[in-house]
TrEMBL record:
The active site is at residue 24. The gene is pth. The keyword Transport does not apply. It comes from Pseudothauera rhizosphaerae. Its main location: cytoplasm. TRNA binds at residues 19, 68, 70, 116. This is Peptidyl-tRNA hydrolase. It is found in: Cytoplasm. The lineage of its organism: Bacteria, Pseudomonadati, Pseudomonadota, Betaproteobacteria, Rhodocyclales.
Length: 216
């Protein structure tokens, strides 16, 4: 499906150095790397309650709300209203508990999965009909541990998988920027191939001790 190209990409997370490396900031990680890829930098914009970058050549705004996760919509709504950006032209990038590290899901609309950042975004936009890129962070296995889990750094092996997933998302950015959501969705929602098990080492050949009968 070729639809409206995104005019606003939002990464969800929490402001402050104490949250920089936590799982809940996966959306920030993506936006920071996309800004580098597009050759733009963030600056604080108080009227938009966040860090904002304008990638003029790409025709897209980047936003990292500085209002804390459960008030993300305040920043998104302010910028979208000011520049008359429609919800269908917005891509929100966020962490996702129900997807394992290393996997992604790109989707339009639908439920909010209990994500507080999405809840506030939908409240301020007045709709669920915007694009989301969900970055898998895994689940602690106990819902009572979710808050503690998302506000802690990922384990080293998990972080490596998350970083690889963000790499794949950035490779798909040209398709997203062109509004070719169908191709981008097919690429990003496909599960990465499992690594092949290492080949078993070949057994050493037994030495040939047979004596050549023609040898004296």
């Amino acid at each position: 499906m070729t639809a409206a190209a995104p005019r606003l990409v939002v990464g969800l997370g929490n402001p402050g150095s104490e949250y920089t490396q936590t799982r809940h900031n996966a959306g920030f990680w993506f936006c920071e790397r996309l800004a580098d890829q597009l050759g733009t930098r963030f600056a604080h914009e108080s009227r938009f309650h966040g860090l904002v970058a304008n990638a003029r050549e790409a025709g897209v705004w980047l936003l990292m709300p500085q209002t804390f996760m459960n008030r993300s919509g305040q920043a998104i709504g302010a910028l979208a209203r000011f520049y008359r950006i429609q919800p269908a032209e917005i891509l929100v990038v966020h962490d996702e508990l129900d997807i394992p590290p290393g996997q992604l899901r790109l989707k339009f609309g639908g439920g909010l999965g209990g994500h507080n950042g999405l809840k506030d975004t939908s409240a301020h936009l007045g709709t669920n009909d915007y694009w989301r890129l969900r970055i898998g962070i895994g689940h602690p296995g106990d819902r009572n541990e979710v808050v503690n889990f998302v506000l802690k750094p990922a384990r080293c092996e998990e972080q490596a998988l998350i970083d690889e997933a963000i790499d794949r998302a950035l490779l798909a950015w040209p398709k997203i920027a062109a509004g070719d959501w169908n191709t981008a969705t097919q690429r990003l929602n496909a599960r990465p191939a499992a690594p092949k098990p290492p080949k078993a080492p070949k057994a050493p050949r037994a030495p040939d001790n047979s004596k050549d009968e023609s040898t004296p």
